[in-house]
Structure formats: C-alpha cells, structure tokens
Amino acid sequence: MTPAAKANLKGVAFAIAAFGLFATHDVVVKILGASYATFQIVFFSVLFAFPLVVLMLMRDATKGTLIPVHPWWTAARTLAAIITGSSAFYAFSVLPLAQVYAIIFAAPLLITVLSIPILGEKVGAHRWGAVAVGLIGVLVVLRPGVGAFGFGHLAALAAAVSGALASVIVRKIGRDERSVVLLVYPMMANFVLMACLLPFVYRPMPIEHLGLVGVMAAFAFIAGLMLIAAYKAADAAMVAPMQYSQILWAAVYGYVFFDELPDMMTGLGALIIIASGLYIVLREAVGGRSETTPVLRSRSRPETGTSPRTLHRRMRGVPGRGTLRSATRGPLAKPPPSE
C-alpha cells in the first residue's frame, strides 16, 4: 500500500469515528429532548462547552482582537448557526433519527446553490441536475400531502438551509477572520439568547441529566478533533462522503434506543439525496470543475454554535491536501464547458 493510500485510509477511519461520535451526541439530544425544551438543552450544551473553548483560546497565539473583519457576514453566520442548533436539536427530539439525517443531508445541495451568489461559483448542468435530483429525494422523505408533516420536518429543513448558509459564509470570510472570532461569536450569541429564553421553559435537571449534557459536549469536542485529523490525513474527496455513514448509525441507534425502524420511503429518499451529494463531491473533486469547491471545503457537519469547532487551515481556504487545486490549471482556472 502506498503512503498516500495509507493516509487516505487513516483519514477515512478518523472520519467514520468522528461521525459515529456525532451520531451518539444526537442520541443524547433526542433522549434529553423527551423531557426538556430545546432552548434549555442548547443553553446547557453551550455552558458545558465553555471550559473546552477556554482551553482552545489559551492555545491561540495569533495576534489580533475579537473585532470581526467582516462584521455583517459574521453576524449572518452567527444567526445561521443559532438557527441550525435550535432547529436540529428540536428535529432530533421529535422525529426519527434516520429521517432527520436524510433531510439534513440536503445541505451539500444547498451549499452548491448558495455558493453561486455568495462565492461567485459557476455551476454547470451536471451539478444542477444533481441538485434537482437531490431535492426530489427530500420530497420523497417528506411526502407532502401524504404523510404527517409537522414542525419537526420544518425544523430539519431549517437546519439544512441555515447550516448550508453558515458553511458558505465561512468559505467566504475564513481567509480573513481569526479562528477565535469564528468560534466565539456563535457560542456567545447562543448563550445569551438561550439564557433570555430559559426562564420561560426551565425544568430542574437531575445530576444524571446534567452528566448527559457533559457527555454531549465531550463527544462533540472529540469528534471535531477527529474530523480535523481526518482532513489533515486524507484528501477531502475521501473524507467528505463519510458524513453519510451517520444514516447507518441512526438506523442502529434508532432501533436500539427508540424502537425506530426507517420506513421504505425514508430509505429511498435518503439514498437519492446521498447519491446526489456524492455526485457533487466527486464533480468538485475533478480538477478545474469547480472554482471554489464549496462542498469539499465546508464542514461536513453543520455548525450549531453549541460546541467548540476548531477551524484548521484548510477550512479557512488556505491551500492544503484537500483543496484539490490543479497544479497545471491554477486556482482561478475556469471550469470547462462540459460541466
């Protein structure tokens, strides 16, 4: 086995482990969501994550202030992260795990669309076709007019849209903003907003439930570090598709903990969405097909503003192993007409 193949294998292993921990984190969200309001869960998630944030801030030797270079984009991203966190936590609380993941998997499709006005990305017929097919898959999962459509489904859709928006904004401003700015603002805004809402929904939490919140924070932190290690070790085109392994975790966890079995339409819709997302990833991975590679360079896990998220250099748009730029075509090469 070549060194490159070993590195890719290592990266894939890290990614699968990371998404397994993220899925376990979501199981805890669902368990707590049966007893507590979403705002309370988000508040304590942020509170327990703060010690980890402090440790990360102590290691940041970059000179500068917490004043954002792009205040309006930072504000938009912060709002998007808040919506993502609250919406995803609520969706996990009221819907089967597999159904939530199937809807959130539409995020790469939305990133592709949002990258056009925000990043100036040129999207050809192939990727537009993948987006259209993927959205059909979303309709298959939702079954409007046939199955029960409620606030949980709207929340999952909101999480997909806002998560995609936050990812594209990071892709736009990541070169200029300090990682600490991108890290702190969503968490601080979440903390303040949820603290204001907490008196209206608060229920006392026994020590075991507070312990579960601590476990959530630890899982998210460790999974984030594993995901960074995955992108450092392997090509982005190898790591990004591993996010879809969460549907397998969801099927197992849903059956074991909540007596959930994904129905045939959810499974079919998930397969369509995953196939569309994989096609977009592979299309971006081909040299010169995409000028900004928005899906490959975005976080595979939507940001919720509830846990520390270290942004290593590749996530900030600095050329690295996962940027997939062609050495012969150059970073600003135009995609060929055949895309």
Précis, in short:
The protein is mostly helical. It is built from twelve helices and no strands.
Question: What do you see in this structure?
Answer:
The chain has one domain (3-299). Mean pLDDT is 83; it is low at 312-339. Helix 1 (3-33) runs antiparallel to helix 9 and helix 5 (107-119) crosses helix 7. The chain has 12 helices and no strands. It has helices at 3-33, 38-58, 71-94, 97-104, 107-119, 125-142, 151-173, 179-201, 207-233, 236-239, 246-258, 264-285. It is mainly alpha-helical. It is globular and about 55 Å long.
| Rg (CA only) | 19 Å
SSE topology string: HHHHHHHHHHHH
Q: Report low-confidence residues grouped into runs of 5 or more.
A: 312-339
**Total domain count:** 1
Write the layout of secondary structure elements.
Blueprint: H1 3-33, H2 38-58, H3 71-94, H4 97-104, H5 107-119, H6 125-142, H7 151-173, H8 179-201, H9 207-233, H10 236-239, H11 246-258, H12 264-285
Descriptors for this entry?
globular; mainly alpha; 339 residues
